[in-house]
Amino acid sequence: MKNNFLDKIYKINDDLTWTRLESGEVIVDMINKGFTNKIAQRFFKKPAVSHIHLEDMGSFIFGCIDGQKSVFEIGKMVKEKFGDEAEPLYERLSVYMKHLEQVGFIQLS
Predict the structure, then answer these.
(1) Which of 5, 22, 51, 62 is the most exposed place for a label (fewest CB within 10 A)?
(2) Does pTM surpass 0.70?
(3) Domain range spanning residue 49?
(4) CA-CA distances (angstroms) from residue 94 to 20, 51, 90?
(5) What is the domain-level CATH number for residue 27?
């Protein structure tokens, strides 16, 4: 039996620090750890924490991830808010969700 990606339910990682501005924009604090980052911080004055600003649609999607809604349900909400601007909806949404998972912002619930 195949798993349908649209049936997956994600939640925001518990150890992730993020804020939502009054404008609705989400800012995620990403800790730069590891050997390469330590070298960059020491010698090239790179920050220990990067502040990732999610764009409008990304901030909306991030706010919908609650450990209860499926990717399909989030897609319906995105379609309702952004209309044709979100198309091709589920292709874009699946790539975005997989990327958020890859960078450690979200995980399967």
Answers:
(1) 22
(2) yes
(3) 5-108
(4) 23, 23, 6
(5) 3.90.930
